[in-house]
Design a protein that fits this description.
The chain is α/β, with parallel strands linked by helices. Strands 3-2-1-4-5-7-6 form a seven-stranded mixed β-sheet, with helices on both faces. Helix 3 runs parallel beside helix 4. It is globular and about 45 Å long. The N and C termini lie far apart (about 35 Å).
Amino acid sequence: MELIHPLVQAYAERYTTAENDLLREIAEFTLTQHADPNMLSGHLQGGLLQMISKMIRPRRVLEIGTFTGYSALCLAEGLTDDGQLHTIDIREADVQLARSYFDRSPHGKKIISHCGNAKDIIPVIDESWDLVFIDADKPAYIDYFNLVFPRVRTNGFILADNILFHGQVLEAEPKGKSAKGIQAFNDYINNRSDIEKLVLTVRDGLYLLRKS
């Protein structure tokens, strides 16, 4: 399902601050060379991630799902001078590719790459999080949330991507484990009273959550 009309998307991108050269290069490579180009955050959502990060000015950011590094570089834009961003991905090829881009960025020294299962890695990173971005395997979203939530500071933020999952959550009974996982996550979040939540209808849906 096409959630955003292509003309609306193009118009929004035209009136959004342009990507820098490195982000444009990552996007072009991902869209033309990667096996899963649809996983790219892209210009508009990337701009939103940048803006949120610059508004929050986080000292510690966690990203679950590095992919080709586009979103991490966007999130790194708002880091404090002593800030760090930890990003995790299970696919070594993507971790190495993203790292090659990070090392060319002025924020590269602030970005720490992890390769492996996020469920194993998150508990051993001894940090309190100002901002968390969840964009990995969909059936595990609830697990990721419960792993990070105790370490998110009060008034800290969690962003969860793909919460509309190509429109499949709009069906009476979502099919497939990813759509079912996202629907379960959305219901789980909606039933909690210890967070403020806002659904943003950008790209494939983004949940903006604030810890009360």
